[in-house]
Amino acid sequence: MSGAFTSKQQTLKLEAKFGGVCLPGLSLWLDPQRQVPEDGHVFVSHAHSDHVARHKKFIATTATALFLKSRLRTTFVPEQFDFFRSRILESRTGSFRLTLLPAGHVLGSAMALLDTDAGRLLYTGDFKLKPCPIAENCDFSPAKHCDVLVMETTYGLPQYVFPPEDEVHAQIASFCKETLAAKATPVLLASSLGKSQKLILGLAKFGLPIMVHNTIHALNVIYQQMGFALPHCEVFHPDRLRGKVLICPPSAARRIAAQCPTELRLAVASGWALDPRCRFRLGVHAGFPLSNHADYSELVRLVECIEPRLIVTLHGFASEFASTLRAAGWNAQTLSVPEQLDLPLRLSSNRLCSATI
Prior knowledge:
The protein is an alpha/beta fold and 357 residues long.
């Protein structure tokens, strides 16, 4: 997909490429999932595997760089940015200013605010507006009234509004206690980075003994290095598992099951658990709607707070969310194949501006 927006007599192309977003005029790639030409700038919003490839050099926060060193075990040169401190980067068409803003998704996750000759663009990456104990609080205030908002819309349907997390943690704790009382082992499936740490903090309030997969333990160490205190968790060993709650990534569940002498009862922590069919599709005993992503209400709130002239939606229910925004009077389009956008931003000063496909 390719498109362009124009402002101040300048044009800037916006493309969906290599699983991410490319601005070829700035030689800038946002979260590409494949290696890109070495003469460009690569921005990695956070350290989840669906937002990164083995780039030799990239722009990220210090925490994201540390997590990637632990996870990828490869040689790369990160250009580490602090939040809110702008830098001027050079491109084939001139220079532009890049500022990273806290995204609230996981520790170190960042939004990218671009100031270019064609206007201001905010790329959110994955984000969450509600305060989270395992990430810096989201702060998009410097991007208010930007020209273009490129936003992720994973949970872009009205049915995906998450309940209070304290309630979800209480439900998970009840599942764990009931499972332990039945002489079985509760296994909570969650992403190693972010979700697992949220579970650890949430379940610690209930006095449950927690054991974690070694990949989670390695990331917990980095959390501690970055000043985020976490309760002590024992590292997984099958001989010591009885009577404990195990947190592990979904990719490790089958291998762990083969090693464990006790009966296992699996539960998944995911925003998709709001769909009652989720646990049946995944083959687990229970599902709990715990997510580090913005839910539908947060997606709407971001748009209303920033008041951009154009919204470009990515991922998840992108088309549906863009349609909802248009019905509410916003100018919104979806960045996906095979659409092509022409976005002349300077034609209007209010939130409705011209766009053609």
